[in-house]
Amino acid sequence: MIYLDNAATTFPKPSCVAEEMTKCLKKYCGNPGRSSHKLSVASSEKIYEARVLLAEMFGADAENVVFTYNTTYALNMAIKSNLRYSSHVLISDIEHNSVIRPIAECVKQRLCTYSVFESGGSDDEIIKSIKKNMRNDTSMLVCTHVSNVGSRTLPIKKIGALCKERGIFFIVDGAQSAGIKSISVKDMNIDALCIPGHKGLYGPQGVGAIIYGSDKIGRTLIEGGTGINSLEMTMPDFLPERYEAGTLATPCIASLAESLKWLKTVNTDKIRSHEENLYTTLCDLLSEKDEITVYKMNDYPGNTLMFNVKNLSSATVASELDKRDICVRSGFHCSPSAHKLLKTGDGGAVRVGISVFNKPADIYSLYEALCDIIKNKRPR
Predict the structure, then answer these.
(1) What is the number of structural domains in the chain?
(2) Alpha-carbon 319 to chain mean position
(3) Is the model's pLDDT at 379 over the cut of 70?
């Protein structure tokens, strides 16, 4: 099996991830922060270890690491808890539905208005588009760091500096960049970085996080038990407990801690270089075929590439590849605005997502399989 759907979730995981999850479930999976017995304390210590590791990686304070289920929950929480009523929000034209839909719902409820800035062109052109769309009542800017369909990277450090200058709350979707690109929430003036555990961090599904660049406190979306201040009717007014109601996903967080330690030994710069080399090889191979249309947002390599085979739907191509034990994804990848920008058509496109565990042989096998599909294609 050749797995090339890593933009959705990385697979396989480092062996330490499964080993730690099993160890947690068998040996120390108490309810963290709820009791003083050994199992509860052991769980709390492991969760704190994960906080510290994430804080180190993303230039934050450990107390400002809030665990969530995934990036989608993180983005919803960051947006809705910090949105200023009757204000204006800015997003880019390549956003994932995890940004588009929460904003659309807030607009539907007449909580805000929004505008879209252009992500094409140079970094200076992007900043120019942002300034053009800013208004006096703009209170929030939400954007992806790296697109999930074309490896387009936005200049978040420059955007963060502009937001700080204008007093705008800056939220970054780091779903495709966490663990791959260098990010420091303090240096980049990011108010809330929303990340998954199961993609570039190589952890399990079921855990994500908001990394706050400061200790700004917003509204709560979920209220409940935190293990502290139990006699009070309201949630704590400090991080991380304010946003962590209920029992945390201890086995997932424990496994994430191990994947973060594994990343340190592998080196994220080497991972990025490896993935970009494979991306370049694949892009060169596919561009040689007249029957294949490659969609690129820029000329810089990444780890995610989209394409279509002429006269075949993306679903058909993905299905044919699956028959050959090659895993890719077809469709719109929850990012309709980016697909519209790239003009992929009514059926979306085939997406290849590369990880550190892929090898050059995987790329050549994919290419050979596509050549075979083209040779024997039957339009559907």
Answers:
(1) 2
(2) 26
(3) no
Distance CA 193, CA 170 (A): 9
Task: Verify that 91 and 118 share a domain, yes or no.
Answer: yes
- Find the helix or strand (DSSP H, E) in which 149 lies: none
Mean pLDDT for 177-206 is 97
Q: What pLDDT digit, counting tens, does each position of 39-58 carry?
A: 999 999 999 999 999 999 99
Nearest Cα residue to 87 out of 188, 166, 161 = 166
Any domain includes 4: no
- Cβ contact 55:231 at 8 Å: no
Domain that holds residue 194: 15-265
Domain boundary among 265, 281, 316: 265
* CATH code of the domain containing 317: 3.90.1150.10
Q: Which two tokens stand for residue 349?
A: 């496109």
Cα(140)–Cα(121) distance, rounded to whole angstroms? 23
* Structure confidence at residue 292 (pLDDT): 97
- Assess whether 284 and 153 both reside in one domain: no
Question: Minimal CA–CA distance to 75: which of 37, 103, 46, 94?
Answer: 103
Last residue of a domain, one of 243, 265, 287: 265
Q: Which residue type sits at 137?
A: D
Query: How high is the pLDDT of residue 88?
Result: 98
Q: Are residues 233 and 340 in the same domain?
A: no
Name the pLDDT band for 378 (thresholds 50, 70, 90): low
> Is the same domain home to 55 and 203?
yes
Averaged pLDDT of the chain: 95
Residue 301 CA from chain centroid, whole number:
18
| Nearest alpha-carbon partner for 185 in 217, 152, 209 | 209
